[in-house]
Amino acid sequence: MTKKASIGVTGLAVMGRNLARNLARHGHTVALHNRSEQRTRELAEQFGSEGDFIPAYSAREFVNALERPRQVVVMVKAGAPTDAVIDEFAELLEPGDVIVDAGNAHFADTRRREAALRERGLHFVGTGVSGGEEGALHGPSIMPGGSKESYESLGPLLEDIAAKVDGTPCCAHIGPDGAGHFVKMVHNGIEYADMQLIAESFDLLRGALGYEPARIAEIFRTWNTGRLDSYLIEITAEVLAHTDAATGKPFVDVVLDQAEQKGTGRWTVQIGLDLGIPITGIAEATFARSLSGHANLRAATKGLGGPSRTPLSGSEAERFADDVEQALYASKVVAYAQGFNQIQAGSAEYGWNVDLGSVASLWRGGCIIRAKFLDDIRAAFEAGPELPTLLTSGDFRKAVEDAQDAWRSVVSTAVRLGIPTPGFSTALAYYDGLRADRLPAALVQGQRDYFGAHTYRRVDGEGSFHTEWATEARAERPA
Ligand code: 6PG
């Protein structure tokens, strides 16, 4: 009997190809398929020595090469191309087989596809895969959704190829239907927030202290040896230290300052609004990208007045880099706290029962936001799965309280100098908003009741109330 493959990958652009190679390198026989045969052939020729591949040149041949339950990983563009490939393979598969979408799909699409395929007896697993091309090859962080049953056959393979931290795979079953893609979406939202906060730190160090990128790279390198130790800080130091070969200028100075996005940050914000979760750090980061991209608006407003710039005093300047580290840390905790709240809310809304400690654990390695402090987040959620926010967990609470003076000072320096810090500022406003004994939301309620009879609740009793503003306010008006 000819040997069959334990898994197949269709869509062999760089992510699909690297996932296939990673699987083969771990001893799994992998069937290969791509719309154009050339890619399949090339992969088998170039990397055939890395493991067992079964190249297939038609969808049927591919499906026939798989042992049962067949596991088909689809690695094509999100949207219509994914639907087309799923439809094609659903026709050829049998009940119990598994289709895996490992691209960045919207979780609502994943829910729809999962429900449709379930009707036909097929398992559909939407899985987040983070870590870029290198991660896919050497060990990504993997966030599979779909049925528990599908994880029984698929899980061991995914755990094999995932990054490992302290011997634990950065892969775990997240929850049913769209849970995996939802969690990956929030991962990307946090990625946006983290990148924005790091970028603001750079901008502050440069704007307030006049440091060159290479010197700031050194500061980031030092930070990376402490509590901020993370992949994003590490690559930031490398990007800042890089010199443009063509001009000899710092690389960062020759790059157009308009950040792009493929859309996962935008989805996170949209869903945050739908769920009513204030993910302000992610939202500001997403809007900061869109502001940067409005070239015409920026050109039209060039020269709008700014503050007269009083330089930092000697002592302020001396401690400024350390203050920025503290502001960055505290703002980062807020951004992650918000992201985890969004996962909690999504999980409650869709009945996913997502284990937040497990999510933090599998983000410790392989993914773009991998960071030392995710182990602290894991510990916090393992100790208190019902934690209302990371900000109330013992160690984080203390760290943020200790950082707050420096954090406030950095935000006020930024305001004084006219350096935009939407990420730092919104994080601090969120912190103060949560801490406040009373919020001006009481006044907003009064306004709503005045103009729209929208009613309000009272501090001293149950029920809804309405004031007859026309008579009561008139009586109080000064004569
Ligand atoms: C990852 C990344 C990746 C994502 C880009 C998109 O986890 O490996 O999040 O999935 O495609 O980073 O980012 P943009 O939206 O900035 O293009």
Automatic annotation (TrEMBL):
Residues of the active site: K184, E191
Entries under Gene3D superfamilies matching the protein: 6-Phosphogluconate Dehydrogenase, domain 3, N-(1-d-carboxylethyl)-l-norvaline Dehydrogenase, domain 2, NAD(P)-binding Rossmann-like Domain
Catalytically driven reaction(s): 6-phospho-D-gluconate + NADP(+) = D-ribulose 5-phosphate + CO2 + NADPH
Biological process terms in GO annotation: D-gluconate metabolic process; pentose-phosphate shunt
Known pathway: Carbohydrate degradation; pentose phosphate pathway; D-ribulose 5-phosphate from D-glucose 6-phosphate (oxidative stage): step 3/3
Transmembrane segments: none
Binding site for NADP(+): G11, L12, A13, V14, M15, G16, N34, R35, S36, V76, K77, A78, N104
Domain of life assignment: Bacteria
EC assignment: 1.1.1.44
Key words, A-Z: Gluconate utilization, NADP, Oxidoreductase, Pentose shunt
Domain 6-phosphogluconate dehydrogenase C-terminal per the UniProt entry, residue ranges: 180-470
Positions contributing to substrate binding: N104, S130, G131, G132, H187, N188, Y192, K262, R289, R448, H454
Molecular function as annotated in GO: NADP binding; phosphogluconate dehydrogenase (decarboxylating) activity
Reported function: Catalyzes the oxidative decarboxylation of 6-phosphogluconate to ribulose 5-phosphate and CO(2), with concomitant reduction of NADP to NADPH.
Subunit record text: Homodimer.
NCBIfam families: gnd, PRK09287.1
Family: Belongs to the 6-phosphogluconate dehydrogenase family.
Official protein name in the record: 6-phosphogluconate dehydrogenase, decarboxylating
